[in-house]
């Protein structure tokens, strides 16, 4: 008699996160040589890919837009953990780490993820289609959050420098949570159809082309996803001294560390968004891009505000003139991209050029 196992067969996506935890346990608190730093980087990359795989399994089971929301929140947890950890162990440069990382996340999501998704979708299908109502609402929320949390501190006068006073920081944190909560309610309950993929005739795509995984498979993937995220956070923290040393050795500004953190934590969403675009589901890609930007501000700023109670030193949130110009240009271009509800490879290229400008000016301010 053959007994059928309740568990799915082992695969690389199951083994790699466990390997990541093992490597994390070995490497934590130790000075790593060059060979081990490279090994940790390889395991980190594999764990990120595994996280993407299991997030897509969970997303397929729960459907859109819940799947995009799960991945966005999960990745934001990584971002917050990294920022707080590095601020605790960092020096004077850590005062602006939260601002640098959050702003980098906004630019990478609004220009990088959106641009890559539109370009890939347009290259394969000619014109990409999406719901302008839902995407426009997401863009408006991202713009408001970014202005409240990253632009206003530069102009307030209650506290010297680009910094909020305690009362202002509390208001910004509460407003961010309120806006994010309202958007999640709109996205998942009240107007869920605004965030579903659209068909060529303008209708909403409600059916999956492939059958969803079983409930048990989705639960297993959710558990492995959590393990993978823990491994990613820990391994990225282990790699952070090497990252900071590499940034200094390259002669880049200390603020570029925030860019590297954002690139690391947003890699799962970038891959997931690219895959969705190649499946002609650009709406899912935009949900991931703008949802990640929104979560990055709406959840990170309140968490950092709470952590600042016991963190020493100032918390610099206000953007500089160059950053504000890039943010303003990103918002204007994004509005022109979103309003028609369809885009070509040109719009994708424009967003990617904006991302390239941000990265270049982050290296050479």
From TrEMBL:
Membrane topology: Multi-pass membrane protein
Keyword Nuclease attributed: no
Domain of life: Bacteria
Listed GO CC annotations: plasma membrane
TM segment ranges: 7-28, 34-54, 66-90, 102-123, 135-155, 167-185, 217-236, 256-278, 290-311, 317-339, 346-363
Keyword field: Membrane, Transmembrane, Transmembrane helix
GO molecular function, one term: sodium:proton antiporter activity
Protein name: Ca2+:H+ antiporter
Subcellular location(s) of the protein: Membrane
Major site of localization recorded for this protein: membrane
Membrane recorded as keyword: yes
InterPro entries, alphabetized: Alkaline_pH_Ca-Antiporter, NaCa_Exmemb
Pfam families tied to this protein: Na_Ca_ex
Taxonomy of the source species: Bacteria, Bacillati, Actinomycetota, Actinomycetes, Pseudonocardiales
Annotated PANTHER family: SODIUM-POTASSIUM/PROTON ANTIPORTER CHAA, SODIUM-POTASSIUM_PROTON ANTIPORTER CHAA
Residue span, Sodium/calcium exchanger membrane region domain: 34-188, 221-363
Protein's organism: Actinocrispum wychmicini
């Amino acid at each position: 008699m053959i007994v059928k196992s309740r568990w799915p067969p082992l695969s690389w996506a199951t083994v790699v996160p466990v390997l990541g935890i093992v490597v994390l346990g070995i490497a934590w608190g130790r000075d790593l040589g060059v060979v081990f730093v490279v090994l940790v980087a390889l395991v980190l990359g594999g764990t990120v890919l595994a996280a993407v795989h299991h997030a897509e399994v969970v997303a397929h089971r729960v459907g859109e837009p819940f799947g995009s929301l799960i991945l966005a929140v999960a990745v934001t947890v990584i971002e917050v953990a990294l920022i707080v950890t590095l601020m605790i162990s960092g020096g004077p440069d850590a005062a602006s780490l939260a601002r640098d990382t959050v702003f980098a996340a906004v630019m990478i999501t609004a220009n990088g993820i959106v641009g890559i998704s539109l370009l890939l979708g347009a290259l394969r299908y000619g014109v990409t289609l999406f719901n302008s109502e839902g995407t426009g609402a997401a863009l408006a929320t991202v713009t408001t959050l970014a202005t409240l949390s990253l632009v206003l501190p530069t102009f307030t006068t209650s506290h010297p420098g680009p910094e909020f006073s305690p009362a202002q920081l509390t208001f910004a944190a509460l407003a961010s949570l309120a806006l994010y909560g309202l958007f999640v309610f709109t996205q998942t309950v009240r107007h869920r159809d605004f965030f579903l993929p659209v068909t060529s005739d303008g209708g909403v795509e409600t059916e999956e082309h492939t059958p969803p995984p079983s409930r048990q498979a989705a639960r297993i993937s959710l558990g492995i996803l959590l393990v993978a995220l823990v491994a990613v956070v820990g391994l990225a923290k282990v790699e952070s001294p090497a990252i900071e040393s590499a940034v200094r050795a390259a002669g880049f500004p200390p603020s570029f560390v925030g860019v590297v953190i954002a690139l690391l934590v947003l890699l799962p969403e970038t891959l997931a968004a690219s895959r969705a675009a190649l499946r002609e589901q650009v709406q899912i890609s935009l949900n991931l891009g703008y949802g990640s930007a929104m979560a990055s501000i709406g959840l990170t700023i309140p968490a950092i505000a709470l952590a600042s109670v016991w963190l020493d030193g100032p918390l610099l949130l206000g953007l500089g003139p160059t950053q504000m110009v890039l943010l303003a240009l990103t918002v204007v271009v994004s509005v022109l991209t979103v309003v028609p509800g369809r885009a070509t490879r040109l719009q994708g290229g424009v967003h990617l050029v904006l991302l390239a400008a941000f990265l270049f000016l982050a290296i050479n301010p």
